[in-house]
From TrEMBL:
Taxonomy, superkingdom: Bacteria
Gene3D superfamilies the record matches: IHF-like DNA-binding proteins (4.10.520.10)
Species whose genome carries this gene: Paenibacillus albidus
Entry protein name: DNA-binding protein HU
GO cellular component assignments: cytosol; DnaA-HU complex; HU-DNA complex
One annotated GO biological process: chromosome condensation
Length: 90
C-alpha cells in the first residue's frame, strides 16, 4: 500500500474528502519528522514508537575497487512496533 492508497482507504471508510485526509496525513508525517530531527521520541500507545538511533562509524569496502573506506557515524530513524500492532499482525 502506498500513500495514495492509504488516503483513498481512509477517505472511503470515514466519508471524508481525500483532500482533507491528505492534508492531515501530511501534517502527521511532518510533525513526526520534525520531532525526530530535534532528537525527540514520538510514542503512539498501542501502535509503536518512532525514535532516532546512533549508528557508529565503521570501516567499509568499495565493492568495485576493493578499497577500504571509512563510513562516518550517523543518526538514523527507527520504529519499534507496539504490542497491539504486533498482536494484530500475528
Amino acid at each position: 500500500m502506498n500513500k495514495t492508497d492509504l488516503v483513498n482507504n481512509i477517505s472511503e471508510k470515514n466519508g471524508l474528502a481525500k483532500k482533507d485526509v491528505e492534508a492531515v496525513l501530511n501534517g502527521f508525517l511532518g510533525e513526526i519528522t520534525e520531532a525526530l530531527a530535534k532528537g525527540d521520541k514520538v510514542q503512539l500507545i498501542g501502535f509503536g514508537t518512532f525514535e532516532t538511533r546512533k549508528r557508529s562509524g565503521r570501516t567499509g569496502r568499495n565493492p568495485q575497487t576493493g578499497e577500504t573506506i571509512n563510513i562516518a557515524e550517523s543518526t538514523v530513524p527507527a520504529f519499534k512496533a507496539g504490542n497491539k500492532l504486533k498482536e494484530a499482525v500475528n
